[in-house]
Design a protein that fits this description.
The chain has 4 helices and 5 strands. By secondary structure, the chain is of the alpha+beta class.
């Protein structure tokens, strides 16, 4: 009999055999599985449960479970308040975050950073001229599928400042046409 879990990072379904045991890392994204790195923010309060706790009603839980849940809720609220306080204490950081958000909203494509998983902002274009790129020519082919000149879009991660490049739309179309030939 096999069981499956869902990777919290890439949301891939991981099926594992009970005899072999559970996976420690996701075979798709190689992130560690487990909830010790996960942070959950619960912005909505359960009004019925709050009222029941205030009235002393058990709501099907033991007193210890109710107490632990109440402590967890208080810890979650303090974590949220702590994060908001950091943003409010540093107006430069808040202004930076707002400016990045404005860039992201205006972009057609928003790739994810391979290093830290934050969304990347479009930084500009880089044109590779003839003579600055040597294309790979597959065996049995007369020429490579990517010929200079072509243009790359450069993306920058606003969190870790990692950069990545991707062909722009026009260069992608040229590659597709070249591969079809």
């Amino acid at each position: 009999m096999s069981e499956s879990i869902l990777c919290p990072w890439c949301e891939a379904e991981i099926i594992w055999d009970e005899e072999l045991g559970s996976e420690k890392t996701c075979p798709h994204c190689l992130n560690e599985l487990g909830d010790y790195r996960s942070i959950e923010f619960n912005f909505e309060r359960d009004e019925q449960n709050d009222a029941a706790l205030a009235a002393g009603v058990n709501s099907g839980k033991t007193a210890g479970e109710n107490h632990r849940q109440e402590e967890k809720n208080q810890a979650d609220e303090s974590e949220i308040k702590g994060f908001v306080d950091v943003l409010q204490e540093d107006p430069e950081l808040l202004a930076y975050e707002e400016a990045v958000e404005n860039f992201l909203v205006k972009q057609d494509e928003t790739p994810e950073c391979g290093q830290c998983r934050e969304y990347m902002v479009f930084a500009g274009e880089h044109t590779v001229p003839v003579g600055h790129f040597t294309p790979f020519t597959p065996q049995g082919s007369r020429r490579g599928f990517l010929e200079a000149p072509f243009t790359l879009n450069m993306y920058l991660c606003p969190a870790c400042f990692h950069t990545t490049f991707a062909l722009n739309e026009q260069s992608r179309m040229q590659v597709m046409e070249s591969i079809k030939k």
